[in-house]
Amino acid sequence: MQVPAQVEYEKATSVAHALALLTRYGPEARILAGGHSLIPMMKLRLAQPETLVDINGLSELSYIRVADGELQIGALTRHAQLLDSADAGEHFAILHDAERVIADPVVRNWGTIGGSLCQADPSEDLSAAFAALKATMVICHPEGSRTVAAREFHTGPYETVVGPAELLTEIRIPIRPGGGSAYEKVGRRVGDWPVGAAGAALWLDGDGDTVSDAGIGLTAVGARHFSAAEAEEFLLGATASEASFARAGEIAAEHCRPSSDQRGPAAYKQHLARELTVRALRRALRRARREDA
């Protein structure tokens, strides 16, 4: 039977209290949100924090709202809440696409958005979705808060820019007209980590045929910052067509550095990066044109 090592436990009553506890216990303290990633890692001794700061009672961090021209998502929002959110589905269908293929109902009912992002798994689905949407992360610390682009949030596998006495509190996505988004994933079985996945967001000019802006997020395929910046640059001002999407998929794959592992060889993952990018762009286009739900 796998049992975590001995650990101190503190239950936070507010964001300010959580930050005070993190400051008191130092860099060996860890936040406990949903716990579906942290607890298994503790059982395997891959993570051995000295103190757990439980923030599950902080209802102030559990919300999805439209304000100031943005979709704002509290870090303690559960996956199931995001999947059920009409506002999220209306403005960014990619979020519903991604949530439908994350884990299983039990995990989605308790796992949190912020916990998934801060776990920083290289195969995490929402990291690619938020990268495609060019979201912004709000990080609180004892002196105030700061914002970081989603594409700068992860510094490496299982590493983020969140400091020892800091807490991710919110994700913000600007709402813009003329857009559509989608997420495509290939996994070994339902709810598994992806072998490869791609998210795309497109915004069109008034003619509906020209790409005015694009976002492409990739996960599990060794994409830098979970994004395909070179492919996005190619699409700017291009005609929204199969030929453009095919070339964007090729560029995205060229800049991926996947590793061979139990989920598949590197060459197959690179193929998925290309193919899934095209599929996501194709579906995002239909949604931008209001041809697909």
Description:
The chain is of the alpha+beta class and 293 residues long. Helix content is 36%, strand content 26%. Strands 4-5-10-6-7 form a 5-stranded antiparallel beta sheet. It has a 3-stranded parallel beta sheet with strand order 1-3-2, with helices on one face. Helix 5 runs antiparallel to helix 8 (125-132).
Q: Give me the secondary-structure category.
A: alpha+beta
Radius of gyration from the alpha-carbon trace, in angstroms: 19 Å
Q: What are the secondary-structure elements, in order, as H or E?
A: EHEHEEEHHHHHHEEHEEEEEEHHH
Biggest sheet record: 5 strands, antiparallel
- Name the shape in a single word: globular
DSSP strand content: 25-35%
Count of DSSP strands? 13
What descriptors fit this protein?
alpha+beta; three-stranded parallel sheet; five-stranded antiparallel sheet
Which helices and strands, and how do they pair?
Blueprint: E1 8-11, H1 15-25, E2 29-32, H2 38-43, E3 51-54, E4 64-67, E5 70-74, H3 79-84, H4 86-91, H5 93-100, H6 105-110, H7 113-119, H8 125-132, E6 136-141, E7 144-149, H9 150-153, E8 154-156, E9 159-160, E10 167-174, E11 179-187, E12 194-204, E13 211-219, H10 229-235, H11 242-254, H12 266-288
Parallel strand pairs: 1-3, 2-3
Antiparallel strand pairs: 4-5, 5-10, 6-7, 6-10, 8-9, 11-12, 12-13
